[in-house]
Amino acid sequence: MKGKFIVFEALDAAGKSTQVDQLAHQLRTEGIDIWKTKECTDGPIGQILRSDYLSGKQKCDEKVINILMAADRLEHVASQNGIIDRINKGQWVICDRFVLSAFAYDNYMHTDINDLNNGFDYTYNMNKVAMSKIVPDITIFLDVPVDECISRLTARGGKPEVFENKPKLELIAKTYERAKLYLKDQKKYDMNVININGNRGIDEISREIYNVVKQQFL
């Protein structure tokens, strides 16, 4: 039997990584073989993205980041021992970010609706090959206010990545919601998005997520 493809989406510092770990642990207790992964990946393109571009070490137009992310995503999906390979072998894949992030982070700067939709079209075309190969069985969107995300980022310390500031995160949050509507209205890509209130205790959030996954797949 094929495995399932579960994606977590949210703003930076919304708690995705923690909830990926929580769900993976819960599903493993059910005897399910789990592969945890993320975007950008630990592959060669993803490593360059993280160390040089997202860190701000290498200055560039953000479109360069968008293109590299799309290439990293396609390799993630289609390479040997990538997402499709593992699902076909029966593993459940839990991924921290996928295509919905591309729509939000590629297009947050567009305030005009026509520019935004044109940007969404561009992102769709850039990711079309990866999107044609696989669709998440469920996308769990952790909804956390921007101010809370900024508070968590500040508490972490260290140098922020290029998207980790309040003005950008406010625009990205709005673009996430517009991207969900775009994909639904265009009937381009049904990611089965489930919104979860992520501004609560870790255990309370994880129980709700596990129950949603259990109701759909177990």
Keywords for this structure?
218 residues, alpha/beta, Rossmann fold, 5-stranded parallel beta sheet, 9 helices
Tell me what you see in this structure:
The chain has helices at 16-28, 44-54, 62-78, 83-88, 99-107, 113-133, 146-156, 166-185, 202-217, and strands at residues 5-9, 34-38, 92-96, 138-143, 193-197. It is α/β, with parallel strands linked by helices. The chain has a single domain (5-217), classed as P-loop containing nucleotide triphosphate hydrolases (Rossmann fold, 3-Layer(aba) Sandwich). Strands 2-3-1-4-5 form a five-stranded parallel sheet. Helix 3 (62-78) packs antiparallel against helix 5 and helix 5 packs across helix 8. It starts with a strand and ends with a helix. The mean pLDDT is 95.
In short:
This protein has nine helices and five strands. The chain is an alpha/beta fold and 218 residues long.
Topology:
Layout: E1 5-9, H1 16-28, E2 34-38, H2 44-54, H3 62-78, H4 83-88, E3 92-96, H5 99-107, H6 113-133, E4 138-143, H7 146-156, H8 166-185, E5 193-197, H9 202-217
Helix pairs in contact: 1-9, 2-3, 3-5, 3-6, 5-6, 5-8
Name the overall outline.
Answer: globular
Low-confidence stretches: none
- CATH topology tier name: Rossmann fold
Number of helices: 9
Cross-sheet strand order for the largest sheet: 2-3-1-4-5
Distance between the termini: 13 Å
Largest sheet: 5 strands, parallel
CATH superfamily placement: P-loop containing nucleotide triphosphate hydrolases
Radius of gyration: 17 Å
Q: H/E order of the elements?
A: EHEHHHEHHEHHEH
- Structural class, by secondary structure, is alpha/beta
Please give the number of β-strands: 5
What proportion of the residues form beta strands (DSSP E)? 5-15%
pLDDT averaged residue by residue: 95
By CATH, the architecture is named 3-Layer(aba) Sandwich
